[in-house]
TrEMBL record:
Enzyme type, top EC level: lyase
Stored PROSITE patterns: TAT (PS51318)
Family to which this protein belongs: Belongs to the beta-class carbonic anhydrase family.
Molecular functions per Gene Ontology: carbonate dehydratase activity
Keywords in alphabetical order: Lyase
Alphabetical list of InterPro entries matching this protein: Carbonic_anhydrase, Carbonic_anhydrase_sf, TAT_signal
Species this chain originates from: Glutamicibacter arilaitensis (strain DSM 16368 / CIP 108037 / IAM 15318 / JCM 13566 / NCIMB 14258 / Re117) (Arthrobacter arilaitensis)
Transmembrane segments: none
Protein name: Carbonate dehydratase
Signal peptide limits: none
Stated role: Catalyzes the reversible hydration of carbon dioxide to form bicarbonate.
Region Disordered: start-end pairs: 1-26, 75-94
């Protein structure tokens, strides 16, 4: 079955004199429909070099989710459009950036946000650590994305099936459940994942156990982030930003949203 066409958003090359607004133009599937702020996209230097360049940032958490869902569906169906990856886009984004989401995921080489959400240059902030665990620099990076002028409407905490950091932690917990030991500073992510695994009351074993903890960990990191960052908490309370957890399946290529 063919996926629904992705909603398209006109590019906002030049913010209005009042400053950037994330509420601008919404494109329907039957064509581009300007809802507001038409002048914001009427930049004379907007490159007319193809469909990808007509795509602009969505403005609200719901709109961002819609764009990411559609992009992931294209990717999972084997029909990616590879938007915003042309030289023109690169040149244009060298002058400014206006990403519409931050994806926080794992370092795993198979879980590349721009690919699996079928996005391009300047579309996404990306932070990655083994197992997606947090530290101060990570939270600060997310606060940077949520703050002006970027004010991204959506943060995605993305776990993935068969996560090696989770599997490694579970293995180390078999030897020492309270203090799982991994070499060097890898112990840092193990110490963060282990309490989640203990609370998860895992049923099953092997890959089933790993995937269960991956899901619990994505939810736990989401909760930790909101607890830890007053800046992000405030943005969420004011409905400027939403934080959602999700899990990526390596086989199907599909992202499963755990909430939101
Ligand atoms: Zn991983």
């Amino acid at each position: 079955m063919m996926p629904q066409p992705e909603p398209r958003f006109l590019n906002r090359q030049n913010p209005t004199p009042a400053g950037p607004s994330r509420r601008g133009l919404l494109a329907g599937s039957s064509g581009l429909i300007a809802l507001a702020g038409l002048a914001a996209c009427a930049s004379p230097q907007a490159p007319e070099t193809g469909r990808a360049n007509l795509a602009g940032p969505p403005q609200t958490p719901d709109e961002v989710l819609q764009v990411l869902r559609a992009g992931n569906q294209r990717y999972a169906d084997g029909m990616p459009e590879h938007p915003n990856q042309a030289t023109e886009r690169r040149n244009e984004q060298a002058e400014h950036q206006n990403p519409f989401a931050l994806i926080h995921g794992c370092v795993d080489s198979r879980v590349t946000p721009e690919l699996l959400f079928d996005q391009g240059i300047g579309d996404l902030f990306v932070t990655r650590t083994a197992g997606g665990v947090l530290d101060g620099t990570l939270v600060g990076s997310m606060e940077f994305a949520v703050s002006s002028p970027y004010s991204v409407p959506l943060l995605v905490i993305l776990g993935h099936a068969a996560c090696g950091a989770v599997a490694g932690t579970l293995k180390a917990m078999e030897e020492d459940a309270k203090n799982p030991q991994l070499p060097g500073e890898m112990v840092d992510f193990a110490e963060q994942i282990a309490p989640v695994a203990r609370r998860a009351k895992v049923e099953g074993s092997g890959s089933e156990e790993v995937d269960h903890v991956v899901q619990a960990n994505a939810r736990a990191v989401t909760a930790q982030l909101l607890k830890r960052s007053a800046i992000i908490r405030e943005a969420v309370q004011e409905k400027r930003t939403r934080v959602v957890a999700a899990v990526y399946d390596l086989d199907s290529g599909e992202v499963r949203w755990l909430d939101g």
